[in-house]
Structures are given as C-alpha cells and as structure tokens.
Amino acid sequence: MAFVTLDGITKVYENSREPAVKDISFEVRDGEFMVLLGPSGCGKSTVLRMIAGLETISGGDLRIDGERMNSVPAKDRDIAMVFQSYALYPHMKVRDNLAFGLRRRGISRSDINRRIEQVAESLGLTPYLDRKPHALSGGQRQRVAVGRAIVRDPKVFLFDEPLSNLDASLRVSTRNELVNLHNRLGATTIYVTHDQVEAMTMGTRICIINDGKLVQIGPPMEVYRKPVNTFVAGFLGSPPMNLIEAELKSGADGAFKLDIGTQCIELPEAWISYLQGKSGKIIFGIRPEDIFLSGQDMKRGANAAVTMTVTAVEALGAETIIIFELEGVDTKVFVKADRYTRANIGDTMPLSIDMGVARLFDPVTTKVISNNTQLSG
Amino acid sequence: MNKQKDLSQPLGAIVTFLVPALTIYVAFTAYPVVRTIYNSFHEVLPGHPNEFLGLQNYVTLYNDKYFWGSVKNTLTWALTAPFFEQFFAILLALALYARIPGARFFRIVWFTPVLMSFVVVGIIWMWIFNYDWGALNVILRAIGLENLAMSWLGDPSIALPALILVTTWMWTGFNMVVLLAALHSLPSEVLEASELDNCNWPKKLWFVIIPMIRPTILNLIVLSFVGKMKIFDLVWIMTKGGPLWSTETVSTYVYKRAFEWNSFDLGYPCSIASVWFVIVLAGVLLLTFIFRQRDKLEY
Amino acid sequence: MASFSRSWKHVLLIFVLTIYTAYTAGPLFWVALMSLRTTTEIAHNPYALPETLHLWKFSEAWVNSNYSVYFANSVKVVLSAVAIITLVGGMAAHCFARYRFPLRKVLYFTIFSTIIFPPQITIIALFQILVEYGLYNSLVGLMLSYVAFQLPITVYILESFFARIPADLYDAARMDGYSEWQIFWKVSMPVALPALSTTIILNTILLWNEFLYAVVLITDESKRTLPLGIQKFMGDQLEDIGMISTGLMIAIIPVVIIYVFFSERLIQGMTAGAIK
Asked: Which residue of A145, A304, A377, B251 could cross-link A265, Cys pair, CB 3.0 to 4.6 Å?
C-alpha cells in the first residue's frame, strides 16, 4: 500500500554545475511496476538512489504515501533495494544476510527465523542458507539479494539493474521470476534498467530518462508505438525505429508529399490538419516491422511504395532483418521480414510502408510532429 | 529553505572516525616535528627558558666535521646497501622462480632475518665478527686465508663495510620475497622456467626480466634507501659509531648529542634532525623523480 | 648431453642455495645452540653442539636477570599499542576510503607522507613532550609513541583495502537500517579481516623489535622492553656470551613460534608496504 510521488526532483552534484537530474516529476501508483529506462549515465540510477535515501535531493519533493521524505534517512523510509552488484555481505552466511536488515527493526528472533525460512522456501534458497555468498552461483546470489529485500516486507522495492550481471539465458528466466514475484506480492516497485527488453516485458509503465530529464512515460506499448521524440524512437526496439531524413512538400491540391532521397511518397489525408503550413526538412520515422516486402502479410490500408536496394541480410532464425539502401539517403533502412525471406545483396525491390503507424519528427527539436491519438498500436 | 542534512556525507560520523587518529597524529607526530624545528633555532637546556639563537645552530652544524662525517657514512650506506640487496635478491628470486625443489622452504628461511630485532642481529654479528673466535675469522683460518682474518669492527676502514654486510644479510631475503611475488605476477609465457636454462640467460635477465619488474625494484630501492637513512639500532648495538667515528650515522650522532654528551642542549641535535629530515625528504623526492623520468623516456 | 648439463646445473644451483641458506639461518641456529650452553663451554669451543641441554639457563634469565619483567613489559606495550593502532587506524582508514569531505586528500597525504620521516625528527621533542605530560619513563608514554609511529603505515594499508570494498555494500547496510558506526563494526571491519590481520602482524613484529623509542623514552630497569633489556644486559655482562644468547632466544622464540604457524601471513604482512 504505497505510492511514490516525485515532484520536480533535481540533483546537482557538488563539483559540477550541470544538474545530473533535472526537474523530474512522476507518480508510481500503488502496486505498480515502474521501469526507469535510459542509456547509462542518464541519471536513472541517481533518481533511484534519491528515492532510496542514499543521495541527497537537491531540489523538489519526494513523497511516499503523500508524506515528504526528502530529509528522512534511508533506514526510516521503509524501502528495500536490490543492487546491481547484489551487495551481499561477504562475511555472512545467506541466513545472516537475510536477517541483517531485520535485526535492526526490533523483530523477535523467532519471527526473524520464520520469515527467513519462508522467503528462502519461496526462492528455493533453503539448501543454501548456511553457505557464504562466495560459495553460490551468480543466479543464487541474485536470488539472495532479492530475498533480502522481500524478507523486510517494505512499502517499496527498488531494483538497480539487478539482472545485468547474469548471463543471457538466466536473465530471461529470472526476468520471469521477478514478474511473477511482483504479481504475487503486489508491492510498489521501481526498477532501473538500460535493457529495453526488460523494460518492455516487465513494466506496468516505462519512464524513459535521457540526459537527466524525463522524456516519456507510459505503458510499454504506448511508449513503443508512439515515441514522443527521436531519442525514444531510436532507443526502443531492436533494431530501433528507422529515422530517415526527408523533405516535406505541400502539393497543389493541399495534400502533402514527402521526398525521401530521389523518391516521393504521398502522406495520408488524415495528417493534413496538423501539417498545415509546414514544409522543409523533416525526419520520417518508421519501425522495421512496419515496412513490408511485396507478398508479405500486411494488415493496414494506408501504405506507400518505395524501392530500395539490399545491402545486408541478417538471418536471425525466427526472422530475417534486411538492411536496405535508399537512393539519395545516407541512413540505412532496417526491415524486419519473416524467416522465409530470400534476398541477395544488390537486389533492388519494391516495398510498402504502413503509413498508418509512421511518424514525423522535427529535425531541430527532435519532437514528434503529430500526436494523433487515433494511430493506436 | 533550510539546508538539508547531507546523506552521503554524515559530518558527525566523519569527525568521530577521524578525531582519534588525528589527535594522536597531532600530539605525537605533528607537534613534535614543529617543536623540533622550533628547538633548532634555540638553546634548549633543562630548567632554563629557551634562548633564541637564530641560525647559530646551523652555522655550528655547517662547521661540524663529525656531522659531515656521519652524513658521509650514512649516505655511503644508503646509496650502496640497496643495490647489494637488489643484486642478490634478484638472483635468489630467479633461482626460486625456476621451480627449484624446496623453494617454499628456502623462501621461508631466507625471510627470517628481517623478523629479528636489530638488537638481536647486532649482537649475533658482533660475535661473528669477533677477532679471536668469531665465525668469519674461524672460517677464513680454516680455509687457509689466515692473512684475511682481521678485527672487522675494530678497523676504521673495515667497520662500515662490515655493518653494510649485516644489513644486506638482513634485508636480502625480504627483497627477494617481494621480487618473487612480482615475478609470479608476470605472464608465465614470458618467463618459461625452461628458457632460463639456455646459455643466454644473463641477457634475458637484463633485457626482459628486469625491465618487467622494474617498478617493484625501484620501489624496493626507495624503501631500502629510506631505511638506511634512518639507521640507528644496529650501529648503536655493534659499534656506537666507532672506531674513530668511522661508523657514526646521523641518527647515532643526533642521539649522542641529545642524550649522551654532557652539553645537555637539545637545540643543536634538533637542528641536525631538521637538516636530516629535509635531506631524507629531498632524497626520496629526487629518487622518485629520477625513476619517473626514466620511465617516461622509455614509454 | 643437454639433459646432463641441465641436471648438473641444477645440482650446482641447489648447492649454492644451500650455502646461502646456511648463511642466513646459521647465525640464528648458532645462537640457539649457545643459549643452551654455559659460557665456560662456549669459551672452550664456540661451535660445538651442546653436550647437556642447560635448560635451567632460561629460568635463570627469566627469574634472576629480570627477563620476565622485560618480557611482560614488551607484551603489555606491544599488545595494547597494536590494539589501539588497529582500532584508531581502522576508523581513520574507513573514513578516508568511504566518505568524501573537504581536506580529505590533504589530511591523507599528510599522514601518508609521515611513513618516510626519519624518527629523529620527532624523537627529541617527543622526549621533551612526554616529560611535560608526565609520561616520560612510562609504558603508557612508550605505547602512545608506538601508536603514533605505526599509525601512518596502518592507515595506508587499510585505506587501500577499504577502498576496494564496493560502495554498494555500505549502501545496502544503510538501507538495512544501520548507523555509520554500526556499519564500521559489522561490515567494514569484518570484511577487511585479511588486511587487518596483515597490519596486526606487521605492527606486532616491528614493535616487538623496536629499540630507538625504547632507549630514549625508558630509563627505569623495571620498565625496559625486551630489546632494551637485552642491550643493557649485554652492556653489563659483556663476557657472558652464554647468558646473552639465552636472552636473545627469549626475544626470538615468540617471533619464531608466530612464524612457524603463520609464515605466509607474516611474510605478507611484512612486505605489505613494499608491494604496490
């Protein structure tokens, strides 16, 4: 039962003028799984550490359940945190690692033991309770770190890239376990990661941070389908959204056309309303899965045809990524095709673009030009 | 807006953690250093107020031939012993590195002397150097080198080298252990033990091995240099600076002037100590600087 | 042929190493033998093996030559100095490694650079100061001087170890509800146990053997430490080689016992300042 409110949170480190975190505001609702996503060094961990009480908040207010927390020390915030390095106490057995946080809180010994047994049981750690951390595998250590947070039964869980030290296969299964755990406990969770797959699969909502600023916040699919600027567009998705420089022209009949290199495509009529009066350089954004080879499945009506030349083919097994070159354009265009696709380097082929989900960005402000909500993903 | 408590810099805790160490440091190290330098400009007699002398102590010092003699002895010691130690230590370290059976045993035994007090070492070596029944002369006589047998600590021209031999005996094993650790931390392909067997190994030693462990060697030389510049106990036990001032070091001279001579003045020995303090610091800085320069030139 | 010359070299090498070993260990071995022989026997032949083990010499030295007092003084001074150095040095090192505060670098460098100071720069003034504090010729005064003497190297060794403990560990303990002081005791110190044992061993050996401070700061016979006691005994009984040897062994034996059990730790501790 906890909600966390950040209201204009700012962090300025002592010996730098530029704030590391600038005026971030959002609210994490009760029971929500909020993911803070951003490239390394963007300030997302600093935000988390401020919520935890490990860093001083330079400006703005942090509230938990409406109560201002700025000057409450970490230990009194009733928050538990799982660290990237796990931060297990190397000189203590797993049992003591789990108990360490309880012993300060006036909980009776038998109660502590009961809670440890329970948590260890639920995480499959019972056989390891009397081992020290160095005798555990990476995955087991990670679970101890999670267990140490759970056992305290805090109001809020914080995770700081908890999966980044695991190998790829373990990461997928642990991701799943954490989601299940969250579903079971229903605790308010704030999770920091730079991995967009984790963000997409785990979060109730994603909060994207870049350069210390909050860029976009929303449910994963909304953020994915409707990036508010080129940063989000280019950060989410693998491969990310194609961002192609283009030239916007208004035709004689009031319709708009887009010059992409030497080719020209018509823009849907629905866009006319907000493109009014605009022309010149623009960035055309389209996701790789929204460009189709002829003959491949395409569900939408509005589309535009272009011709492109194959420069590389990456067959990933489940799907094939074809990298195209557009005449007169520097950027390569990535296209996700199905696994049966055959393409050779140098082939020139016609493709169709699903204009219904295409986006236009201002090249100067990098912001999206449309915000037409009818384009749902 | 009131200033918030800084969570990453709990000032109270910082002060609590530092105060005991700083108190001890100030009371028993910093203050004595300052007091020594203050004393060096005064005549300090028990029961008398200190009398300001200006630079007079330093002028006396400049003309004090015993002081300069002790400087010469100490510098001779500090500039030769480190190299003897390094030379033998490198050879011994290489021998143990070449997977000699019993290497662990050798290493442990060779390290022993440095664990002994200078008092213990000094007394033992006084006996070894004894003219009549000391081990050194006994061995020399036994192998027919009777004319080399001498009064090692009684001859002014031999006493200092004899003492340098003792410090080398004491510290070679220590240096060997550090060098061996440095060798073991090198990538093993470079130093395959079998390759040391080929006839070219002195070359290999000079051009491959020594350059690779040079930071360690230089560090040990500086450490040994500092140790010899401070040396007191061994001399005090074995020769008290004699015969004829030939083994007087700055440390023993300071001690004599402060606590042995009937002058009772603590000001003059303090000026010696101050000068020596500056020389040791300068020496360390100079050595570090020279070694750094050479490193820069090569990389 | 090659293998012949190789094994021949090997034999030569081992021979040389054995000679060197005799050269290092011989003197100590010789003293050990003499400590069990009487001066008359030694005068007869200094290099003979003991005919009968005169173990009574140890009780003689212990009781009649005051070695029990010297030994007790050494133990008292060394143990209390090492305990204080470890605690105070650990606190300071923890502070330097863990917190960022103004003057941190200046203070650390000041303490660190003291490692190379020649002791003469402090010893005379220290003598005066202890006289003024009423701590001259007292074991407490000597002990405090020892603490100050070994503090810089201790802080240096411990700081470099504490600095390698991941900051997350401290943060985790803070979130677990522990105060800075409790974190120092329950996290820093236990995790740093290897480094602590290194400094404890180093300080114990160096102070057990220390002579200069003792000779300047102690005058009473009843307050002499072992090295000082041996030196004075030798000064009085210069010719009594047998009893001096016994005295030397009393100082050597504890070190050798520690060395036998903890040789690697001891080597590690003694060389800690030299290995970067």
From this structure: A304
